Each structure stands twice: as C-alpha cells, then as structure tokens.
Amino acid sequence: MVREEEARGGPFVVAAESTLMPMLIADPTLPDVPIVFVNAAFIKLGGYAREEVLGRSYHLLSGSDTDPEVARAIDLALRAGEAIVRQVQLYQKDGTPLWVLQHVAPVFEEDRIRHHFVSFVDITARKAAEDELRQLNEELDRRVSLRTGRLDELNRQLTVEVERRVDVERVLRNTLHDKDMLLREKDDLMREVNHRVKNTLQMASSFLRIQLDAKRNQEPAVQDALRSAVERLERMAEIHEKLYRAQGLQEIEFGGYLGMLCRDLLASFETEQGLQVVLDIDADEAFLKPDQAIPLALIANEAMINALKYAFPDGRSGRIAVSFRHTSRSLLCMTIGDDGVGMPENRRSGSLGLTLMELLAEQIDGGVTVRSDKGTTVAVSIPA
Hints:
There is one protein chain. 54% of the residues lie in helices and 23% in strands. By secondary structure, it is α+β, with helices and mostly antiparallel strands. It has three domains: 2-122, Beta-Lactamase (2-Layer Sandwich), CATH 3.30.450; 128-214; 223-383, Heat Shock Protein 90, CATH 3.30.565.10. The strands form three sheets. Strands 2-1-5-4-3 form a five-stranded antiparallel β-sheet, sandwiched between helices. A five-stranded mixed β-sheet has the order 7-9-10-12-11, covered by helices on one side. Helix 7 packs across helix 8 (207-214) and helix 8 (207-214) runs antiparallel to helix 9. The chain is flat, with a radius of gyration of 33 Å. It starts with a helix and ends with a strand. 21% of the residues are buried.
C-alpha cells in the first residue's frame, strides 16, 4: 500500500514530504522489518541518502549508547498492537549523537499489522539544556555547602561568645550581689544574642550578602563594587518577577511597563535623596516576549539609576526624558537622556554599568550608544 502510494505520488507522500517532522514507515511482514518509506525530514535528521535507507532496518540510527531496553520496549508494544513513545539517543551517519522523542505505532489493515509508522522529534537542544541545568545545580549545591560551613563556624563563634558572657554573668552574680544590675546585664546579653542570631540567619539566606560581609575589611572601592553588584542583582530579580507575573509567559506591553519602572525609580530616589527631577515619558505601545523585555528593562533600570545618582549633584534640579518608539517597521529604539552634568570620561570607558548594558543588548541582537555632551543620553536599538 505504501509503495503504491509512493509510486504514484499520492496525497500521503505529498503530505509526508511537506512536513518538518522526520518520519518513516517499515514493513513488519518482511525479514528485519525493512524501511519502505522515509520523508525528506528524516533524510535531513539522519544524514543518509534516501537510497542508503530504503530496505534497511529502522534501527539503523541506533549506536553504542542507544539504550537496548528502549528497543525491547518498542518491540513488545508493537507485538501487542500498541503505540509507544520513548526518549532515545540515536546517531547520524557521521557519528554525531542526537536525542529524539520517538513515536512508534502499528498500522492495521483488515485486522492485521501491515506497517510500523515511526516519527521523531529532535530534543537534542533540550537535553543539552537539561544537562547544563543539572551541572548548575551541582555547582550551586557545592557553593551552598561551602557557605554552610562558614555558617557553622559563625554559629560556633556565637556559642563561644554566649558561653563567655554567661561566665561573666556568673562572676557578677557571685561578686556584686546586685539583683538589678544582674537583670540589666542579662537583658543586654539576650538582646545581643538575638541580634547575632538575626545576623547569622541573614547571612544564611543570602549568598551575596555573605560575600559582602566577607569583604568587610577590604578597601572602600571593593565594598562599593560589591554593594553595587548586590543592588543590581536585587533589581534584576525584581524586574524578572514583575515582568513574568505581569502577563504570564505571553507577550508584555513594554511601553507601559517602561513608564511604570521609570516612575517607580524616580519616586524611590525622590524619597531617599530629595531629588527635584521632572520625568518625561513618550512610549509607543509595543508587545515584547519576556526574553526581549527583561534585558531591555534591565538596561532601562541601569540607565535611570545612573542618571538619578550622578546627573544632578548638590541638589540640582533637572529633567529626564524617556522615549520608546518604532523608528521603522523592523526597529525599536529606547532612549533615556538627562540634562545634568554629563558623564565623566572615566565612567564612560569600560565601566561596569556600560559593560552590563552592552552585554544585555547583545542578548537581544541590539546595540547601545552613550552620548555625553549636554547631559547624558543612553540609546538602545533592537529588532522589532
């Protein structure tokens, strides 16, 4: 039936050749269950020529690391007249390994199994991502173990300190006989113990906070760099959460979100530093996927914070203009500019903030430019 259909180029052949899903048909009525039909997608998947495949066993893509239990499970299912789906590692003609989701189903004709239909979904990239995630989890476990050791040491030091103070309290009780003084000393001790316990729990709950605490005795520049990194990471986490919760994993209306983000940042700095800055926002409506919106939002966050921190020193008033527009059908441009004092040359060349913005722009096939003449303007262009 399949060979006749293939010979006359019927609708099955046309449909099968048009689909992007690799598929083959094997004949179980012949020895070794040879392949009698493959589509172009299967030829591309395996790297074989069509004439190299026809007539061979449909296990021809199996190799040294192909799980034999999968083949046995498929054979048992087909004998029972049942379809089966399994993940399995196969090999292309040149030996390149690949992972597929393999679906095998019997094809009946007049209550007899006449053919085996086999389709494949290439999951190599997904398996690679799973392996990378597993390695990251192992590395995280290793780092947590190291930090837990530090926490144990802090707890040991705390215990020693508590025991020392208990000894002091015992000496005071034996020598002073002043009940009120002993009670005050005890209260002070409990407050200090609670304070130390609280600090210890904070160290345990935040890896970066522990890192910052570990650098306490180094020079101020190191402290500032660590603190800035912590602030950036916390803001990144907040932006990720807001964007993903805004509209699930669907597209996000970025123009509105950009306005909300900039207004929130300005309000925060006005409260903390008493800034007097006017914010102008001109944002087109544009729907972006989260993997575009998150890097772009992080760039906007970095540019806004730089403007709010450095553009208006000594209580200067000023203006920040935020724009997000379609400059063409295929290009979006976001600009954040201020009329402040401008960016010094030493902060423009190789700064962490600029490097971060450039790396984020590269993630979404975009580019960043920074101009600093009358104030500072950060411009980002990305594909629409």
